[in-house]
Amino acid sequence: MSASPRTRVRVRARHRHNGWGYLFLAPWLVGFFLLVLGPMAASLALSFTDFNLFDPPKWIGLDNYRQAFFDDERFWNALRVTFTYVFASVPARLAFALAVAMLLNRGVRGLRVYRAVYYLPSLLGGSVAIAVLWRQLFGSDGLLNHFLSWFGADTGHSWIADPDTSLLTMIVLAAWQFGSPMIIFLAGLRQIPQELYEAAELDGAGPIARFRAVTLPLLSPLIFFNLLLQVIGAFQAFTPAYVVSNGTGGPSDSTLFYTLYLYEEGFTQFHMGYASALAWVLFAVIAVFSAIAFLSSKYWVHYADVRS
């Protein structure tokens, strides 16, 4: 049974409207396929080859992955350094962000100024200039040692050149860049009804109890959002370690972030096939952590519009 003329006209009109939508989407679709999906597919294919940019790729199967997991000690050290950095810097950054957001939420005068000042490190913290400044701050003749000298402490210690403290300076730099999650937390805090705090106070809840029973549950969606973004960003951290260690991951590979090791293998040693395999391992690690976050969110993330 054929469609009526009126139905055919409606279908053609709908297709014309959809055509305009696809036309506006075309630049994004072209960019996605040419600049994202295409290079990802090429990288996946190269991860199974021996490729050095100068000779044609040679198929070697899973040898790159086998080398990484069973023969490469620096691969495991880079993972250890990166996991340490992620597990230390992300909670510190989120804790500072939430603390400052709660302080600014008390109705401080000049809120816009404070908000801009605290957000500034997030804009500048990943830059080369700040990484260079960090070297000067924690060097043997840096500002930190000058401050410690006022208390009679030894001022000859270089925090960056010491393998025991170099990664700590990277963690401090990451925690200092708390402006972006702070802005998100502040927006969420301003949406929490004051009546809930007043009701909890009438029930005898103190500040800590109100924070645990009111603030954390209502902020949990934003905590989840910030946690996910910060974990992904921390796994991808590169610039501070590269600048502070002069691209070596030193001293003694103590700041050898995984991305820095990937860069060394790909653009210093020209092991492009091996670097591609390392990139896909990092992709898998981030995917696993993202999946864990989403699967666990149903136990601790509370949405106001969810009805039992």
TrEMBL record:
Lipid bilayer topology: Multi-pass membrane protein
Record keywords: Cell membrane, Membrane, Transmembrane, Transmembrane helix, Transport
Location in or out of the cell: Cell membrane
Transmembrane segments: 21-48, 83-104, 116-134, 167-189, 218-238, 277-301
Domain (ABC transmembrane type-1) ranges: 79-293
CC terms in the record's Gene Ontology section: plasma membrane
Family from the record: Belongs to the binding-protein-dependent transport system permease family.
Record protein name field: Sugar ABC transporter permease
